[in-house]
Write a structure and sequence with these properties.
Radius of gyration: 18 Å
Number of helices: 8
CATH architecture of the largest domain: Orthogonal Bundle
Shape: elongated
Order of helices and strands: HHEEEHHHEHHEEH
Helix content: 25-40%
Strand order of the largest sheet: 1-3-2
CATH class of the largest domain: Mainly Alpha
Structural class: alpha+beta
Number of strands: 6
Strand content: 5-15%
CATH topology of the largest domain: Arc Repressor Mutant, subunit A
């Protein structure tokens, strides 16, 4: 059996965003990455192509252009192996490889010229009682349909490892967050029985640990 390669946060975002598109295109990138085809994004896509997690195909869309060949536009699209990679372990929590530790990757992305990724909070300081983004995350998780990783990334402009840290912080406050799947996509949600406590946290109230 082929071993799924380890992915960094940038690669997870690229694959997660493309998996939500009807045609599976990696381009243009998510708005949280600035929607520009930067050198860093090119390098990430090249690695995905090398591992067959993405593939080149002809496209008619100018904003999906990866390269040109014989006058034809060539785009990049997620493969079945790519879809499997972002749901590795059943929850999509793919760990960064040696080439990029999560914190270093987030810092590099935030500093890249033209990137729209907002500086991320120190995950050790995430506090649901004082952080409005945490309250927004809780609100998304309280929906009957919950929220996917991509939806949480787009809503907060945080990278996946920070989203996971935020959910861990919410759990430590005594709030249950469950995980499930629909249409081969992982999503998280706060069950109805835990919503009263979640409302207390999101509104800034004290909740017993």
């Amino acid at each position: 059996m082929t071993r799924t390669p380890k992915l960094n946060d940038l690669q997870v975002i690229l694959l997660s965003f493309s998996a939500q598109r009807a045609d599976g295109s990696l381009l243009p990138p998510s708005r949280s990455l600035g929607q520009d085809l930067t050198d860093r994004i090119r390098k990430a896509i090249t690695a995905l192509l090398r591992h067959s997690l993405a593939e080149e195909r002809e496209t008619l869309q100018a904003d999906q252009l990866w390269r040109e060949q014989d006058g034809q536009r060539i785009g990049v699209f997620i493969t079945d192996a790519g879809r499997t990679a972002i749901s590795a372990g059943g929850d999509g929590e793919v760990q960064p490889g040696p080439m990029a530790q999560a914190t270093d990757q987030a810092t590099a992305l935030a500093k890249e010229p033209g990137a729209a990724v907002n500086p991320e909070p120190d995950t050790a300081q995430l506090d649901p009682k004082s952080d409005s983004k945490i309250a927004h995350v809780i609100a998304l998780l309280e929906r009957p349909e919950g929220a996917t990783l991509l939806e949480l990334v787009d809503a907060t402009d945080w990278l996946p490892h920070t989203i996971r840290a935020a959910m861990t912080g919410v759990r430590k406050k005594g709030i249950t967050i469950e995980r499930s799947h629909r249409d081969n996509t992982t999503f998280w949600f706060i069950p109805a029985t835990a919503r009263d406590a979640a409302i207390g946290i999101g509104a800034g109230g004290d909740t017993a640990p």
